[in-house]
Amino acid sequence: MPALLRYQQSLKTLGIQTWSMKRPNVFLGEVAIALENSIQLIFLSEEIMDMNTPFLNDILTSLNLTHANLAYFPINKLSHLILPIQESKQHRLVVLFNDQQNEAVEDDIEELMLKGEISSYINELKQLKQCHLIETNTLKTLYASTMAKRNLWRQLTKYANNKTI
User: Fold this and answer.
1) In this structure, what CATH number is given to the domain that contains residue 117?
2) SUPFAM superfamilies from the entry (predicted)?
3) Which distant-in-sequence residues (6+ apart) come within 8 Å of 159 by Cβ?
């Protein structure tokens, strides 16, 4: 008899019931995210975003969407979004606002590990059939650079023209 089974039997004879968790990662901070069917556009960003700026409203308008079709998540929650997007039958556009290529290398090991995890989740997101990923600069950079804005609009237009309704 395996040790774990003997241990559980011993506890059972003492009147102690054992349980197994379906999602033990909850204790590590994992959160279940449910995406409503109305959500068609997801913004991911390291910075806190004001969803009522004229620029973001223009993005929504250009895609014929409203705020009810939009969800915003901090980039560190990206790992929690992979499964809900993967399990969804609905196609979604994900816009990642991130200046990763311009960032200086951090000495903080935890920060580097987090960036490595985020990069692997971004690569995983790119592989999903249920979403289209657009990577662009942070809003701060977009507001300051016409080239960055033009690049984002080019990607949004390409997505809108190729999208099947």
Assistant:
1) 3.40.50.10220
2) DNA polymerase III psi subunit
3) 63, 93, 132, 134
